[in-house]
Design brief:
about 110 residues; single chain; mainly alpha; flat; membrane
Length: about 110
Amino acid sequence: MRRTVHAVLAVATAALILVVPAAAHAAPEGGIHLAANSLPTVISNLQRQIMLLLGGIATLFLVLAGVYWTTAGGDPGQVDKAKGALRNAMIGYGLAVLAPVLLDIARVIVGQ
């Protein structure tokens, strides 16, 4: 009984979609407008997102380095772990600063 109800509902839904022209041919009235941006706009948006992501990750590593260093209590292994996290944070900040340069190189390669 349950399968029959589900089958009838599926067939009724498909028939309704095919019978109603507005649902079957949902064409916009003013023509088709593409939502894609130009390549320079896409590269600019990508640059901003990469800088935000790298800056956020670098800040996370900086906070972790501070926590490791504060809780080290003289343990050389913990201090080395803190130094590694601090080095990773500096690398992340460096990459965030270099992101515009790297994407400018990509623009030159693409020809924009």
